[in-house]
Design brief:
Structural class: mainly alpha
Order of helices and strands: HHHH
Shape: globular
Helix content: 40-55%
Distance between the termini: 64 Å
Number of strands: 0
Strand content: under 5%
Radius of gyration: 17 Å
Number of helices: 4
């Protein structure tokens, strides 16, 4: 539900995460934060892995920043869900379910990375 200013309170922790990355030295400007917000909004009801990847693809510009991002994400996420319980964030006006063809990606923290699909392009045959 929006507050008196019309802002969605779920946005505040997402924006503060972008600002934290900036404070840690990553080149995270307003445009990257807006892209992160849009990515999270497009996911609807998001879990840890979805938040991780939405942030990683929209807030990180260089491989050299991945370690800093991982530490910052872990600290930020734990501050939102202090127990071991899984946290989800729901933004207003966004559908509750993902599209049927999407599957959740795993964070590198869980020991595996998302699957990459192989090209389905037909092979060339010589005649």
């Amino acid at each position: 539900m929006a507050d008196a200013t019309g802002r969605d309170p779920a946005l505040a922790p997402l924006v503060s995460f972008g600002r934290d990355l900036r404070a840690r030295g990553l080149p995270v400007g307003t445009g990257r934060i807006v892209t992160f917000l849009r990515a999270v909004a497009s996911l609807g009801l998001v879990d840890r892995a979805s938040l991780y990847w939405a942030g990683r693809v929209s807030l990180v510009a260089s491989r050299a920043d991945l370690d800093t991002y991982d530490v910052a994400f872990d600290t930020w996420y734990r501050s939102l869900a202090p127990s071991d319980a899984e946290l989800t964030i729901e933004l207003r006006g966004v559908p509750r379910q993902r599209a049927r063809n999407q599957s959740p990606a795993r964070s590198p923290r869980s020991g595996s990375s998302p699957r990459r699909s192989r090209s389905s392009a037909p092979s060339r045959s010589r005649t």
